[in-house]
Amino acid sequence: MQHIHDYLGVGFGPSNLALAIATREFSQGGRSANVCFLERKPAFNWHEGMLIDGSTMQISFLKDLATLRNPQSRFTFINYLKEQGRLEDFINIQTFFPTREEYNDYLGWAAAQFEDQVHYGQEVQAVEPWLENGRLLGVEVISRSQNGESQRRRARHLVLGLGGAPQVPDAFEGVRDPRVLHSSQYRGRIEPLLAGAGRRVRVAVVGGGQSAAEIFEDLTQRFPHADVAMILRGTALKPSDDSPFVNEIFNPSFIDRIFQQSDARRHELLTEFRNTNYAVVDLELIERIYQTFYLQKLRREPRHQMLAHREIAAVAADEGGLRLTVRDLVAGNQSELGFDVVVLATGYRRDQHRQLLGGLDAHLDGLEPDRNYRLRLRNSDACVYLQGCCEASHGLSDTLLSVLAIRSQEIVESIFLGRSAGTRSQGERESQLTTAL
Ligand code: NAP
């Protein structure tokens, strides 16, 4: 008889890892859970393409995989440090923001404790309804391994934690050229392109967000023979707002409030607070980049460029390089610029679940999740849970690490206890912002 999982998780990044932890701790309370995760990558890795030397987290380590849900969990960042023998040294660094390298190591350490539940190298091809005698009992997930073998698994519920997919500007749609890469592929792809070029190389970085800025700085520091142009649609690099009152929008307790708003009001709030997360850069990094431009002025060595309010209208590639047709959004004119490499630091799409859920279309009433991140399958107890693609309904924190610990608790309680999120306080007092809404 085919094995039946309580839930099957697609993707094993931080969201489903936090869920695996919450599920294990829930099971330790005497309940049994039988779960399984499928991950496309051959091994655990978190944004390996953006592990830029020295880059730090922008979210406090206290918002790790478990602390906000259960500070006594063995999966907290502090316990990781203790087990690695670095807790005291970390305290001496005096920071809430570890390097991304260390955070990746923490996540990998936690993921390694779930090897028995995760199947790596499995690409999910389709999700279908699991029907018996006309009754919908759950889902069937069809995946393909790296050697092309197809497998079908059954589960009562499905949890999608797919992460983002590269967002590519229209002009680059369909351009398959190894000299064009997305920021998510930066580390690993850039080195062979630039190292040993034996001449000056021209690199364009498209975008004005944190990824673009970190990549710009890395290029200028690690590759002294690279002349780098940042090309952004905005007028200037702008700082991210991480001031304390504003930061309350990332409190898990804020989600209740934002979920209760009308669509129009939620949209207004997303727009109002966009500068906490999108197309913005850490202020200290902006200041260092400004200093780089100031020094090249001082030395009369105009190498790097900041091309603001510009958009790429077209791309042409030949052996000599990549020719970008660049439109000036203020003057309205166009010019042609040549580069050897283009890095698209143009952010992420979070719509991959739409295609994956196509096979359940006939059983779903749309793709709008309830407060429990849940899409109910009609005439059935089976549900699909969405992690990281509910920004429109659950707010700006949804795509970030901030809410992982609490969200995973809410999903576990919904699956195993039928309890609804938002019906109990997280034991935290209401924030300033929540009471103001
Ligand atoms: P992002 O904030 O979404 O920024 C994307 C940039 O690309 C924006 O400047 C956007 O400009 C531009 N863009 C988008 N589509 C474009 C198009 N078609 N043509 C031209 N420009 C286009 O993406 P990100 O910088 O990758 O950051 C994503 C998330 O990762 C953020 O939460 C960020 O904080 C996080 N991150 C964290 C770290 C760290 O922890 N150290 C490092 C990197 C990233 P418009 O505003 O004009 O659309």
From TrEMBL:
<dbReference type="InterPro" id="IPR036188">
    <property type="entry name" value="FAD/NAD-bd_sf"/>
</dbReference>
<keyword id="KW-0503">Monooxygenase</keyword>
<dbReference type="InterPro" id="IPR025700">
    <property type="entry name" value="Lys/Orn_oxygenase"/>
</dbReference>
<keyword id="KW-0274">FAD</keyword>
<comment type="pathway">
    <text>Siderophore biosynthesis.</text>
</comment>
<dbReference type="Pfam" id="PF13434">
    <property type="entry name" value="Lys_Orn_oxgnase"/>
</dbReference>
<keyword id="KW-0521">NADP</keyword>
<keyword id="KW-0285">Flavoprotein</keyword>
<comment type="similarity">
    <text>Belongs to the lysine N(6)-hydroxylase/L-ornithine N(5)-oxygenase family.</text>
</comment>
<dbReference type="GO" id="GO:0004497">
    <property type="term" value="F:monooxygenase activity"/>
</dbReference>
<dbReference type="GO" id="GO:0006879">
    <property type="term" value="P:intracellular iron ion homeostasis"/>
</dbReference>
<protein>
    <submittedName>
        <fullName>Ornithine monooxygenase</fullName>
    </submittedName>
</protein>
<keyword id="KW-0560">Oxidoreductase</keyword>
